């Protein structure tokens, strides 16, 4: 066999091996999805058929009933004001929490003296169970959205603050020294090294914090509120309308997944540019 | 007119003491003792010595990253205060920016020096070519081999044309073949430029192959033990440097120095160990 044929043969081998590999990957992926769908479907089926037979339907509700409630929510538009209130609380609380977390973490990392002075206060603040703050905030700021925004912001703040601090700390001293010898000023170090180093940490924290932001808002609504998904859930519960409770929970779950999902591509993109070392 | 311009680097009677531990158990450690030497312009100086003998401390002092406890360091006749940005520092770890491509890594130092974009790009390309990384401009550091990362780290230091280049065991973690190739490339780059180099290494052969002078340091507290001029003419063939006349004499002397230090270090550690055992 001459060299040309040899090269051709190798190409053929590569191509066939690639397509075989692709086939295996696809088959595995399909299998995973089949399993997931089977698990979900059997869970729903068990729930649907068991409701009223195995367990009391007043408490368990059923997938079809939850669907009916959700459909009604959508048709009558009764959910709109509640959803809007919760969304506003989450958006405001989350934004404030992220902004405060990033800026205070930056302040701390730029001034170690400030960090040393403030550390015990932050730790004490972190130690407060946030649930305990809700009643006092409601007492101070009333039934409107303000106390919910605050709890939501506090829940977001700590996740973002802790992770951003870690990210800023992860910049190696030696790397910063080399950059300083190259002539980098402090603002340049911040812009060209500290921010790129800390960004993946912050974005991950921002993704994780969405759950906290939602939790904070709902917590506030449970304590006292006129509008919000939390109100829908607690009303449903007091009226023994399990379908309404589950519908509210489902809306919150979808909300969490959506917010989480929005940040995943950004996170992946940042991680691709900066592989873990 | 005999050598009127001052040496590029001069250390005058420099001591460096580091303090560590918490307040109940403070320890002071003499890292450098009475360092007194000059480096003339364009010289390639290598420093060898056992681990922990203060070699890196010398580089940190020369770059101005740390201040001497006593004595002074002069750069072109002026005392160094604060970081000296006329210097380039190639550390043992390559300290590349993983989120930047090869090209952008080389451009980094020019960016912080506010070099206009067009010139930046041209100079970066030129230095990437000099270290043989052309074609890899768009790659990220994690896509490069260890030797390539090292070359990148050298390119991004040379690109801003520092007067003095400090290198702290830059080829330490590489395999023997790659080391030789990089030594050869480094010598070629050095002879085509006009830079002064201070190069730290563990490797005696490397220290002779590259340098005009080899400085042997003692174990802690680090002090300069001997300085040997290397009279081997340039251009040098690093691949056959051990066959060159004059090589083995310097090698033997260096090895004698280092061996004494290593044995003494062992001995004092053994002695400590024995003392501890007899106490128990």
Keywords:
heterodimer; A: 277 residues; mainly alpha; MetI-like fold; 11 helices; B: 280 residues; alpha/beta; Rossmann fold; six-stranded mixed β-sheet; four-stranded antiparallel β-sheet; 7 helices; 37% helix; globular
Q: Secondary-structure blueprint of this entry?
A:
The complex is a heterodimer of chains A (277) and B (280).
Chain A: H1 3-50, H2 57-60, H3 63-76, H4 80-110, H5 112-127, H6 130-141, H7 146-169, H8 173-181, H9 186-223, H10 229-238, H11 242-273
Helix pairs in contact in A: 3-11, 4-5, 4-7, 4-9, 4-10, 6-7, 6-9, 7-9, 9-10, 9-11, 10-11
Chain B: E1 9-20, E2 27-39, E3 44-48, H1 55-63, E4 70-75, E5 78-79, E6 87-90, H2 102-112, H3 117-130, H4 146-158, E7 164-168, H5 176-192, E8 196-201, H6 204-210, E9 213-217, E10 224-229, H7 247-279
Parallel strand pairs in B: 3-8, 3-9, 6-7, 7-8
Antiparallel strand pairs in B: 1-2, 1-4, 4-5, 9-10
Helix pairs in contact in B: 2-3, 2-4, 3-4, 6-7
Structure description:
The complex is a heterodimer of chains A (277) and B (280). The two termini of chain A are 45 Å apart. Chain A is flat and about 75 Å long. Chain A has eleven helices and no strands. Chain A has two domains: 3-50; 63-273, MetI-like (MetI-like fold), CATH 1.10.3720.10. Chain A is mainly α and 277 residues long. Chain B is of the alpha/beta class and 280 residues long. Chain B has one domain: Rossmann fold (3-Layer(aba) Sandwich). Chain B has helices at residues 55-63, 102-112, 117-130, 146-158, 176-192, 204-210, 247-279, and strands spanning 9-20, 27-39, 44-48, 70-75, 78-79, 87-90, 164-168, 196-201, 213-217, 224-229. Chain B has a six-stranded mixed beta sheet, sandwiched between helices. In chain B, helix 5 (176-192) links the parallel strand 7 (164-168) and strand 8 (196-201). The longest helix of chain B has 33 residues, at 247-279. Chain A binds chain B through residues 172, 174-175, 177-185, 188, 192-193, 196, 273-275, 277, and chain B through 63-65, 83-85, 87-89, 91, 93, 95, 97-99, 108-109, 111-113, 140, 142, 157, 160.
């Amino acid at each position: 066999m001459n060299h040309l044929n040899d090269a051709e043969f190798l190409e053929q081998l590569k191509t066939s091996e690639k397509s075989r590999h692709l086939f295996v990957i696809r088959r595995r992926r399909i299998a995973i999805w089949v399993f997931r769908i089977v698990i979900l479907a059997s869970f729903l089926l068990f729930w649907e058929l068991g409701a009223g037979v195995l367990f009391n339907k007043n408490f368990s509700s059923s997938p079809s009933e939850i669907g009916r409630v959700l459909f009604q929510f959508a048709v009558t538009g009764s959910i709109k004001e509640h959803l809007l209130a919760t969304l506003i609380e989450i958006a405001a609380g989350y934004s404030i929490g992220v902004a405060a977390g990033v800026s205070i973490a930056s302040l701390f990392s730029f001034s170690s003296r400030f960090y040393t002075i403030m550390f015990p206060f932050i730790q004490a603040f972190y130690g407060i169970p946030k649930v305990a703050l809700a009643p006092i905030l409601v007492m101070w700021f009333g039934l409107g959205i303000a106390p919910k925004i605050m709890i939501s912001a506090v829940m977001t703040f700590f996740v973002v603050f802790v992770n951003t601090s870690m990210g800023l700390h992860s910049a190696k001293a030696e790397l910063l020294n080399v950059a300083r010898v190259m002539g980098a000023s402090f603002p340049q170090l911040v812009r060209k090294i500290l921010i790129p180093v800390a960004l993946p940490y912050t974005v991950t924290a921002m993704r994780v914090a969405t759950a906290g932001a939602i939790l904070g808002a709902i917590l506030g609504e449970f304590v006292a509120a006129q509008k919000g998904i939390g109100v829908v859930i607690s009303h449903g519960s007091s009226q023994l309308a399990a379908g309404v409770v589950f519908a509210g929970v489902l809306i919150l779950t979808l909300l969490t997944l959506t917010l989480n999902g929005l940040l995943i591509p950004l996170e992946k993109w940042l991680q691709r540019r900066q592989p873990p070392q | 007119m005999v050598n009127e311009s001052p040496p590029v680097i001069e250390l005058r009677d420099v001591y460096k003491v580091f303090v560590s531990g918490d307040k109940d158990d403070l320890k002071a450690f003499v890292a450098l003792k009475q360092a007194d030497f000059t480096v003339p312009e364009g010289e390639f100086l290598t420093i060898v010595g056992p681990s922990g003998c203060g070699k890196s401390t010398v580089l940190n002092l020369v770059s101005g990253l740390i201040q001497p406890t006593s004595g002074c360091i002069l750069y072109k006749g002026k005392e160094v205060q604060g970081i000296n940005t006329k210097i380039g520092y190639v550390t043992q770890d390559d300290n590349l920016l993983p989120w930047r491509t090869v090209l952008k890594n080389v451009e980094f130092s020019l960016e912080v020096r506010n070099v206009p974009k067009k010139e930046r790009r041209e100079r970066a390309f030129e230095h990437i070519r000099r270290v043989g990384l052309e074609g890899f401009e768009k790659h990220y550091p994690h896509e490069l081999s260890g030797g390539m990362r090292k070359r990148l780290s050298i390119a991004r230091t040379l690109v801003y044309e520092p007067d003095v280049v400090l290198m702290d065991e830059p080829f330490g973690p590489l395999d023997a073949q790659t080391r030789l190739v990089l030594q050869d490339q480094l010598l070629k780059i050095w002879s085509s430029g006009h830079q002064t180099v201070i190069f730290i290494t563990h490797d005696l052969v490397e220290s002779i192959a590259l340098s005009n002078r080899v400085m042997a340091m003692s174990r802690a507290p680090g002090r300069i033990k001997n300085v040997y001029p290397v009279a081997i003419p340039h251009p040098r063939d690093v691949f056959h440097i051990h066959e060159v006349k004059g090589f083995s004499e310097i090698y033997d002397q260096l090895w004698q120095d280092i061996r004494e230090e290593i044995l003494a270090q062992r001995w004092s550690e053994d002695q400590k160990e024995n003392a501890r055992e007899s106490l128990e």
